[in-house]
Each structure stands twice: as structure tokens, then as C-alpha cells.
Amino acid sequence: MNDDPSADLLAEVMAIERQIAGKLAADRHESAQWLERTRREIEQAKLTEIAALEASAARDEEAAGKAAQEKAAAILQQAQATADRLTALSDAQLAPLVRQRIASIAPGGTP
Fold first, then answer.
1. Which among 92, 108, 110, 90 is positioned nearest to 100, based on CA atoms?
2. For the chain, which residues score pLDDT lower than 70?
3. For residues 18 and 30, what is the distance between their CA atoms, to the nearest angstrom?
């Protein structure tokens, strides 16, 4: 050691400053690593959520298509049943119905 107390104090202060600077550098490095890990985790979570949303949308689209097909099939079935009933009518049964429909759409006709 040096006999000069101020030189000893200065050396001690400089040593402490080096320790603090080293600790700050280590903390910065650790923070940067944590930030990078967190960014990757967030990106992965985002990609996972996008994939889940896309899969959900595809399922919803498929379900909507199936529901539309079922509704269209029901409408066609009902139309076919109506056509079958009308086909089964005789001309004598059909004539008054045709006259009634024509009267409802003719100018001055009654519904």
C-alpha cells in the first residue's frame, strides 16, 4: 500500500467504479438476452395464435358450408314435394287454382 491515504482512497474508488461498470455491462448483457428471449417467445405465441385462428376459421367455414348445403337440400326437398303434389292434381283440380293465380296478378285482379 501507498503511504498517501488519498491515493489509496482513489485506487479504492476506481476499483469500485470498475466493479460497478462490470456489473452494469453484465446486467446490460443479461437484459439484452432476456429481451431477445422474450421477443422470440412473443413471436412464437403470435404464430401459434395465428395458426389457431386460421384453423378455427377453416372449421367455421366448413361448418357454414355444410349448413348451407343442408339448408339448400331442405329447400330442394320441399320444392320437390310441392311439385309432386301439384303434379298429382288433375286438370279439374288445377284449373280453379290457375284462374285464381292469374286473377291475382292480372291488372285489376283480386288477390
1. 110
2. 1-2, 109-111
3. 18
